[in-house]
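Exercise (ungraded).
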Amino acid sequence: MGLLSKKDKGLILDPLADNNPITIQVLGICSALAITAELKASIVMALSVLFVLAMGNVVISLMRNIIPSKIRIIVQLVVVAALVIIVDQVLKAFAYELSKTLSVFVGLIITNCIIMGRFEAFALANGPWKSFLDGIGNAAGYGLILVIIGFFRELLGSGTLLGFKVLGDPIAKTGLYALGYENNGFMLLSPMALIVVGIIIWVQRSRNPALVEEN
Amino acid sequence: MAINTDKNVYTVVFAAVMVIVVGSVLALTASGLSDKIKENERFEKQQNILYAMGVNENVDEGTVNFIPADKVEAEFTKYIKEQLVIEGDKVTPDPNAYLINMKKEVAVAKSGGTPKLPLFVGEKDGKKFYIIPMYGKGLWDAIWGFIALDDQMVVQGVYFDHKGETPGLGANIKQRYFMDDFVGETIMAGTEYAGIEVAKGNNDPTNLIKDDNEVDALAGATITGNGVSAMISETMNLYKDYLKTIRTN
């Protein structure tokens, strides 16, 4: 037997595909629309959520037997907010440049419904190790979709990837632009992120009909 | 041991303990790290001021490269010859003028008071730069920056930053391709201190026309762009009386 049991592997792998938080559970849509105009921001956001969700899941799971059920949502919010603020402060003191890049995301991480959703649905009912894996899996599933959306939006919207001009220079008219290609500025706007999410959902469901709901 | 977590008393006690614990942990972290954070912020301001006057480590056209934090203090004293505080008609030198919080001073000016306005005089290769801090608001939160002028009121460099503009859209005001467009633009329209407008569709995407008080806007970041325009013109309004005394054309 390897490092992870079959069940544990499922915790990590399921959210990547058939139980993806964005495309199947439709959670975390707001941040998926807000910050995916470029690939770099998508990657940073994915990593931040990975950290916060894994840590938060463990903390909530450790506290699961003593949290009063009436105020559990508030407790969850406090845990996320405290975690994010501490990380932000530590980065500000020791990795100032990095903290500047991340500060934009702090608010979006706290309000990300995937985090509350996993606390509520998983960490409150499972042990710390399983919760940790669940956190990693869901954050990775979320991050995967973010990176896909970010890839297409930056490529088609700005003609760049991670800031590199992969399609040529739109002003000097080199590369593809020499043939009359134009960037689609609409890709930079949030509605197109929603349409890209829609296309991903469509592709995923037509490949796996079991995911399609019966009317 | 089973605790009845549904009892009201337990809930209240739990909430109280949680608030105290989390509160103290956050307070401890914040006060323990505050010196280091303040120092970082001080270095950052010096880096930004120097960046606006062209003292930076930019190598290509792509990325912003500041003077490294461990060298910035020495470079700052080397290049910034004078730090002035302009309070109404009174102009006084102050070696800590760069620590003045522009947010407060802009608020003072808006409420009709007399703000203490910092201005930095830099010198590089025998050329004088007048560097002015700016503060305004973008779409979501604060935006700020520095603008370096010469004595002809032509922009020599700018630096913009923001607290929470949308990544990929408004956040791009701190990208080189946006900031570099300002270089060479004049803030004067005749004898007016007009500032520079971030304009959509000015038919000048490569910014060849330098005397139109316009630079090309960022797609999808209208409100942030308008915020930058407003910030520059408001700053010019605050500083124009002093700028008149140094303008030579």
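Further reading is listed at the end of the chapter. For now, observe: Chain A has one domain: 21-204. The interface with chain B takes residues 34-38, 41, 65-71, 74-75, 78, 82, 85-86, 89-90, 92-94, 96, 103-105, 107, 153-154, 163, 171, 185, 188-189 of chain A (CB under 8 Å).
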